Amino acid sequence: MLAKRIIPCLDVMNGRVVKGVNFVDLVDAGDPVAQAQVYDREGADELVFLDITATHEDRDIVTGMVRQVADTVFIPFTVGGGIRSVDDMRGILMAGADKVSINSAAVHNPGLITDAARRFGSQCIVVAIDAKRRKEGDAGTAHGADDGWEVYVSGGRVNMNIDAVEWAKEVEARGAGEILLTSMDGDGTQVGYDIELTRSISDAVSIPVIASGGAGKPEHFAEALTDGGAAAALAASLFHFQQLSIMQVKEYLLARGVPIRIPPGDIL
User: Please, is 209 exposed, middle or buried when counting C-beta atoms within 10 Å of its C-beta (0-12, 13-18, 19+)?
Assistant: First the structure.
C-alpha cells in the first residue's frame, strides 16, 4: 500500500502566510519561506502554497517566492493561485515548483486541464476543488436541498452551481493527476474533515485525493486517510500555530497502522 502523505498548506496573501475560518477572518501566520523550511525539517511529505487572492485580484502569482522556496526546501511542493494558462504553469514549474494547482481557471475553461496534462504530464497537474454543502433553502443550486456539494471559485466567493462529485469525475477524465479537495464548511474550524464529502469524491475517481478543511487533532487525519479514502491530508492552522507538529500526527497514524513515511534518522 502506498504511504499516506501529510501536507501543510500555506495560504499566502501580500507575501505573508494567513489563515482564517470558512475562508474569511484572515490572520497573519508568518513568512512563507521560513515556514516552508520549518515544515521541511519537521518531516512534511509535501507542501502546498496557495496565493489566495491572486485570482480575485486578477494578478499573477509571485514567482520570486516560488524560487526562494525551491532554493531552500527538499520536498515536493505545489503552487496555485492566479494560474490561468499553460504559459503561467510553465513559469511556475520553471521557477522550481513540482506541481501546479488550478481551480477557478479550470472551472471556467476545463480544456485547460487537458492542455496542461498533455504539455507537462498528469503528475504535475493538481485541480483544487472548493466544495460547500447545499443547505435547505439555498437558491439557484443545481440540485435539491441537502443534496451533496457545489463548487465555488474565486477564493470561495462565487458559487458555480456545479456538482462537486461530477466535477471531480470530469477533472480526472481531462487528465488531472490529483485533486485537492477543500470543504469550505470545515475550513479553519478544526472540528474534523468532511468525511462524507471526502469519501464521495474518493469513490468517484481513481486519482489521489488530498483532504483539506477542518483538521484539529490527530484523529481527524486518521479518519480522512481511512474512512475518507484520501491519499493525503492537508492542514494549515494547527501546524502554523504549533498546536500539533508533523511528527506528532505521524506518530499517531503509525501507531494505528496507517502507512506513512518517516524521514531517515527520525525515531518515533
Answer: buried
Return the closest-CA partner of residue 220 out of 184, 258, 180: 258
CA distances (Å), origin 145, targets 130, 138, 152: 19, 7, 17
Whole-number Cα distances in Å, 107 to 99, 111, 169: 18, 9, 13
Coil, strand or helix: which one is 121? coil
Helix (H, G, I), strand (E, B) or coil at 262: coil
The CA-based angle 149-154-160, given to 5 degrees, is 40
pTM: 0.89
Residues 105-144 pLDDT 10s: 999 999 999 999 999 999 999 999 999 999 765 544 444 4
Strand partners, 232: 5, 210
Cell 502569482 sits on residue: 61
Residue with cell 452551481: 161
First to last CA, the chain: 21
> Position of cell 436541498?
145
**235 forms bridges with which residues in the sheet?**
8
Catalytically annotated residues: 11, 130
Note the pLDDT tens digit of each residue in 34-54: 888 989 999 999 999 888 655
Whether 219 contacts 191, CB under 8 Å: no
Neighbours of 94 (CB within 10 A): 12
